[in-house]
């Protein structure tokens, strides 16, 4: 039996709770980083458990963190190198598109619509100013972004190192009656986070596989470059490779290439964009997380709208917890009814 809490115990708990609240408020700008690192730690913990069979706990956690670091920065550097190596090619495409837009603007200005040239120039300058402000914001945020990356990987290491111990200690001090519910929710959390992270990577790989034959049929050069860009865009929530398809559609319009435009609209978007993003991703997530794919999409969109990028993880996670909690309550009510026997006035079934 757990001992009764004395007045000193309550004061101690209140003190610790106050310290936790103060620390949370102090590190509030980094809270999203800590949430992402803890959620990723849950996904990669099985790897650390396997490594612990061959090495000590700290070394296994360090190796796991290092593998995540290499995978992440390797992907980023590879993407940057691909873009850099195709910079001239991209510059040619952008120049053609810009020239086509300028010609369209000239035709629009001197058409029957009679749009004043100063209004068009004002709009263009406004867009340039907004883009410059955005670039300036990124540059000003770079020091804090570096700090976020450092905190992310340091906290990831600690969550991997102490994750199993924290879970064991926490569950070990809970009342027996609630342990089963916590274990059930824990399974749901692990499955949902696995679906969020691992399924995204699988969807990105599928997008690359589908993009290679499509861009080959399209007839454009740099097939691997376009396929890799589509796969990388698939990792971006909501936008996906649709941005690439829109860009190529504008390029096809600027060239007057109606064949490519038709292929992009009839095959490129449905097969390369919509099929992996709208069908495969939610289906795989719903299957692993054991909830309906529509609920997963509600979690994604709702989380992003309310919480930003962190909501991409927390949104589906909260939805999964609500579904899990609902089933737990239903099972508890069913068990209570069975234990209570037949209600007065009911006729027992033969």
Topology:
Layout: H1 7-26, H2 31-52, H3 57-85, H4 87-109, H5 117-172, H6 176-218, H7 223-234, H8 242-255, H9 258-289, H10 293-307, H11 311-340
Q: Can you give the helix content as a percent range? A: over 70%
Alpha plus pi helix count: 11
Give a count of the beta strands, DSSP E runs of length 2 or more: 0
Gross morphology is: globular
Distance between the termini: 42 Å
Q: How would you sum up the major sheet? A: none
Round the Cα radius of gyration to an integer and report it.
Answer: 27 Å
**Residue-averaged pLDDT, rounded?**
78
- Hey, roughly how much beta strand do the residues contain? under 5%
Uncertain spans:
108-114
Helix/strand/pairing category: mainly alpha
In N-to-C order, the SSE pattern is HHHHHHHHHHH
Could you explain how this protein is built, in words?
With 350 residues, the chain is mainly α. It has a domain at 30-162. It has helices at 7-26, 31-52, 57-85, 87-109, 117-172, 176-218, 223-234, 242-255, 258-289, 293-307, 311-340. The longest helix is centred in the middle third of the chain and has 56 residues, at 117-172.
Looking at this protein, list some descriptive labels.
mainly alpha; single chain; 350 residues
Write a concise synopsis of the structure shown.
With about 350 residues, the chain is mainly α. It has helices at about 5-25, 30-50, 55-85, 85-110, 115-170, 175-220, 225-235, 240-255, 260-290, 295-305, 310-340.
